[in-house]
Amino acid sequence: MGDKNQNQTQDVNQLLQVRREKLANLQQAGKDPFQITKFNQTHHSMEVKKLYEVHEAELLKDHREPDVSGMDEEQVREALKADYEAKRAIMDAHPLHVAIAGRMMFKRVMGKASFCNIQDLQGSIQVYVARDSIGEDSYADFKKADIGDIYGLEGFVFRTRTGEISIHAEKMTLLSKSLQILPEKFHGLTDTDTRYRQRYVDLIMNQDSKEVFIKRSQIIKEIRNFLADRDFMEVETPMLVANAGGAAARPFETHYNALNEDVKLRISLELYLKRLIVGGLERVYEIGRVFRNEGVDTRHNPEFTLMELYQAYTDYEGMMELTESMFRYLAEKVCGSTKFTYNGIELDFGKPFARLTMNDAIKKYAGIDFDTVESDEAAKALAKEHNIEFEERHTKGDIINLFFEEYCEKELIQPTFIMDHPVAISPLTKKKPSDPSKVERFELFINTWEMCNAYSELNDPIDQRERFAAQDAAFEAGDEEANHTDEDFLNALEIGMPPTGGIGYGIDRLVMLLTDSPAIRDVLLFPTMKSLDSDKKYAKAGNAQADGVDAEGQAAGANDNNGFFTSNDKIDFSNVKVEPLFEDTIDFDTFSKSDFRAVKVKECVAVPKSKKLLQFTLDDGTGTDRTILSGIHAYYEPEELVGKTLIAITNLPPRAMMGIESCGMLLSAVNNLRDSEEEELHLIMVDNHIPAGAKLY
Known about the structure:
Elements: H1 2-28, H2 45-59, H3 73-93, E1 97-110, E2 113-119, E3 124-130, H4 131-134, H5 136-143, E4 150-159, E5 165-176, H6 192-197, H7 199-205, H8 207-229, E6 233-234, E7 240-241, E8 253-256, E9 261-265, H9 270-278, E10 283-291, E11 303-312, H10 316-335, E12 339-342, E13 345-348, E14 354-357, H11 358-366, H12 376-385, H13 396-407, E15 416-419, E16 431-432, E17 435-439, E18 441-446, E19 449-456, H14 461-476, H15 487-495, E20 500-506, H16 507-515, H17 534-547, H18 555-560, E21 576-577, H19 588-592, E22 596-606, E23 614-619, E24 626-630, E25 645-649, E26 655-657, E27 660-662, E28 665-666, E29 668-673, E30 679-683, E31 685-686
Parallel strand pairs: 3-5, 6-10, 14-15
Antiparallel strand pairs: 1-2, 1-4, 2-3, 4-5, 7-9, 8-9, 10-11, 11-20, 12-13, 15-18, 16-17, 18-19, 19-20, 21-29, 22-23, 22-25, 23-24, 25-28, 25-31, 26-27, 29-30
Helix pairs in contact: 7-8, 8-10, 9-15, 11-13, 12-13
């Protein structure tokens, strides 16, 4: 196997060298493609085909197809040949000249004439390349061309005997030489990791990927068109902020050298847009990137596109009407119908969207009426009874939200507005006059996903200050996602903000829905990915620091150590307290009932609403992903665990945690330091050469 891989590497290297030699020969002959700065492209492939069909229909409208009834096979063949030549003569007498440019994805050389396929933005088109048409020198150069080379060509359009609309090249110009080898066309590019890391190759090889991003652009264009028709103004607000407010999320922090100040990347657009409402811009929106220091999964990326809009003199009911109208409009414009499928399930945007209060939804799907629950303690008792994990700082409002997440979200497939959230989880929202424990807020759920979040915006500066104070207290109690008091925003509210409806939409999730894409990375051109060499860099830096030698000298050792082992002689274990060993013994049969397996971490994310839990997606060798939750977030960030090989017990009964079923347990080593009650935890990691599913004995 080793010899085979080595031979393949050598073959690839030889092919790459050949391409570079071809480029050198062209440059030597004064035909350097990289010196060409411009090509006058008149059409794209699909335009060419459509234009020719219209042109053909006009020129051949009086042409009669031959009657082949009663003819034998040879006569039919001759009649059809004569008919083709007659039609071809008519078309060639009125040629349609075009100039296209794109990447050559196929080439077949046949002596004095050849065929190739040119792929551009719209698709691909066949090109007929004849020596007599483009000249002997150009044809000789063309025969040496490689798949992946970028060509500009001029010629006229025709239809082949087989009926394929093609271009008869009259001039071929090499615009760029491809020095790398594209994936083999038959198999394409299927590895998802490579597709995300090398999106440029994915777009070349996978037309479906290209269509997703073309459609994404269309979605955003149509959103802008819809809002323009409603007199909304598009604005831009700061990305670097002193106070990252407007949402419950951990921000990324950085330092502004010029001002010598710590700043944060925005997590929301809300507070600045509301300032504009105060300033008299009655309808504003922004589509922009926001940044949240959270994990990565199929629906979350640390940087993503958010749209927020605010409209003066309306409320959350007005936002519901706007949202339903806009989603229906987008489905019609982008999908061609208000009915479309996602993951095989038909979604209907043509019907009025369902409406449920959060408490009514819990009553419907969990059988609990929180309107009759009097206190925080009673709510916590219900949570314990239903195995809902919560923290001591949580109030009744938090518990309601936890119940909703556990019992209701999974049921909301068709578009459903969930309304009237608890005030405890809505710090920027107006209270309902009829019930001050709730707020005028809704979230739209489709396909179990939260698609947007809307408020009747709080414009009472006194109430807002109290809400900010409660958020500050929550932060002090350990809630890293809590908002902080924003004095300038409070000042703006004291100036006076009119009654306002506001809403935020996750654009990426909307694109996923309308393009039938399974993961957020499929709709982000360049999703966040862990560096391929991050472990090596970490080990290199760590070893260099510990040993006082240059990092380059430690590169080999870092590789050998698999990115997470540190030599024992560099760690001081003298202060570690070791618990006494168990004196009781167990028989071998009892021990062997536990199924210990090597598992590889495919994905790891923080569990929403939990400060402790990480959710692992694991390869256990069976071919089916395994989910395990572990309360180790205090010791590890999820990103640093992706790609590691861990040890899990795989035959424990499933256990529901925060509404997620955990199937197994990851093994860790725990200890205390002497004279310390604080526990240290170390997730057990093993050599990455151990395959997933390997059983431990």
